[in-house]
Amino acid sequence: MPASMGTRRAYREVTTRREDQPLSAQPDHAPLTPYAPAPGAPAELLDQLRADQRAAPWVPAFEQEWATALEESRRAFSLAGLYEVVQVWQARLASAPAVEAFLDSSRDETGFVDLEEIRSRRR
Asked: Of 26, 50, 68, 96, which has the fewest Cβ atoms less than 10 A away?
């Protein structure tokens, strides 16, 4: 009886050897990217930023962050930084109306606790 057959019988046909397991093209340790924007998302986002009333400060800031992330992605061979820039700016653009509404409402903070008060209690 070959050695491999004897080993399999000893373990009751349960195989534990690496070569008996199916191969996968995806490594076990590779993290999955939770968010991948569409290929045209940066251009669409830039168009939305240019059409927004805050275009003067936001467009140069986005372009600077995008250029930095693009250079880093070239060095690191990773798209994660580019995805992050798009995701952050999409969130900023989406939350801008709510932030403006809060600022226009005379900043009513009656339901909030002052952070300095909490810090003084701990001392």
From this structure: 26
